[in-house]
Every structure is written in structure tokens, then in C-alpha cells.
Amino acid sequence: MAANATMHWLLSESVFIISTVAYLPNYVEDPGNSYTVSGYSNSATVISICFGAGIVLTLLLVSCKRISHDIPLASTYSIAISAACHRPQEDKEASLLPVQWGVITSGNQTPVRCAFTTLRTVRPPQAGDEIGG
Fold it and tell me: Does the keyword Transmembrane helix apply (predicted)?
């Protein structure tokens, strides 16, 4: 968000409006010599291009990073997304603490439930676990 705001500010410094109002000796506006034109700054334009290229390069480098295989990809499967986002009742301060993903049901309950939580009793899903919502 900061990069977006900085990019917009740099672009606004690159291209701008110049309005020149001319006056006659008796302080009356002279419309024949008054102009409104667009102006530009070469240095701000070069900096904007370099900054934009830096943003694109950063996004490309971050997109090449492999994601963790601990969390299955749900893509557009809304049931899996909903199940993973509903915290357990005893997880009260999830917005303040670091979260982890895993099985949150205790004992031998079937199906097991996975979610993002701050609870310490989370374990990774195991082969053969039947995962439900």
C-alpha cells in the first residue's frame, strides 16, 4: 500500500498543469497572453519508471517463492476456505497472537477439523485423517 501511494505521488510529480495568467498595466487580465498547458519533470519521470520497475521486480521475486506444503490449497473451494477460517470457541485473541494451521479437534473424533488458530494443541494432519468442516 505504501508502494502504491509512493508511486502515485511520483506520477503526480511527473506530469502537472501550468496555468499562467497575464495582466495588462491597468490590472486587467490579458486573455491573449494567458495560457494553461501541461508540464512534465524528466527527473520525476525517470524516478517513477525506476520505482515502478522495482515494484514489478519485487512482485516477480516474491511470486517465485515456494509456498509451504503444510496447508492444502483450497483455491476456490468455499467449504474448505470456510472451515479453515472458523476459529474454535476457546480461541479468543486470534487477532493479537501468531496463528498456525492444523487439526484442532482433540481425541479420536471423526472427522477431524482443521483451522487457523492460536491454540498450542494443534497438530499437522496425518495420512488417513478424515477431514471435515
Answer: yes
